[in-house]
Design a protein that fits this description.
This protein is an alpha+beta fold. Helix content is 39%, strand content 18%.
Length: 153
Amino acid sequence: MSVRLDEMDRKILGELQEDAGQSLDEIARKVGSSKTPVWNRIRKMREAQVIRRQTVLLDPEALGLEACFFVLIRTSEHEADWQKKFLKTLRNRPEVLEAHRLAGDIDYILKVRVQNARAYDTFYQSLISEVKIYNVTALLSMEEIKATTQLPL
């Protein structure tokens, strides 16, 4: 279900996506409004779950997480119990930054951040010991060309 947003809401969201640490005064100035109406709009967008949470983006390489793998998973298991266990396993693994169920030949794709190839192998061995997987293909990202959390508004 989409929420009806006007141009001012979109401007505010754009500013928050750029830097959620800005003061209300800064945001209001940039969007051409005053502090109280901006605060009210942000509050309403939080209540409507347009704004889900506020967080901080960290530099993975600065933290020693230099390897990014895209993991393609095929499974021969499609029962509800297997899926529940698989999803629980993924959610409990901090290395898994994203997980998507796909249409097509590949069932799932994961974005995994680890220190190096040896750390990926440890992750892989742990994953296949927890859940039965038919086929796993890991692709090492050689260079991150674009990464953003900003949605097109």
